[in-house]
Amino acid sequence: MQALLRPLTPLQELFDCVVVRRVTRDCLVSFEGRQYTVPFSWVGRDVEIRRGT
C-alpha cells in the first residue's frame, strides 16, 4: 500500500483575509457587515477572524 502514497503538493493559502475584532458586551463580533455570536466568556477579548478562499 505504501508504494501508492505520494507527497502532497503544497497547499495555497487557506485564508485570504485575517482580521482581529473585539467581542462586544452583547457577545457579538462584526465582520464584513455581519455580526456573529461568540461565547459570553469571550466578552472584551480580541478574536481573530479568518475568511477562507
What does this structure look like?
The structure is a single chain. The protein is mainly β and 53 residues long. The chain has strands at 15-22, 28-31, 34-37, 46-52. It has a two-stranded antiparallel ribbon with strand order 1-4. Strands 2-3 form a two-stranded antiparallel ribbon. The model has no long low-confidence stretch (mean pLDDT 89).
SSE blueprint and pairings:
Elements: E1 15-22, E2 28-31, E3 34-37, E4 46-52
Antiparallel strand pairs: 1-4, 2-3
- Largest sheet: spatial strand order: 1-4
Question: What fraction, in percent, of the residue positions are helical?
Answer: under 10%
β-strand number: 4
Mean pLDDT over all positions: 89
Query: Shape from CA axes?
Result: elongated
Which H/E pattern describes the elements?
EEEE
Task: Count the domains.
Answer: 1
Strand portion, in percent? 35-45%
Give the N-terminus to C-terminus distance in angstroms.
Answer: 33 Å
Low-confidence stretches: none
- Subunit arrangement of the protein: single chain
Q: How many strands, which pairing sense, and closed or not: the largest β-sheet?
A: 2 strands, antiparallel
The total of helices stands at 0
Which structural class do the helices and strands define?
mainly beta
Radius of gyration over all CA atoms, rounded: 18 Å
Distinctive features:
53 residues; two-stranded antiparallel ribbon; mainly beta
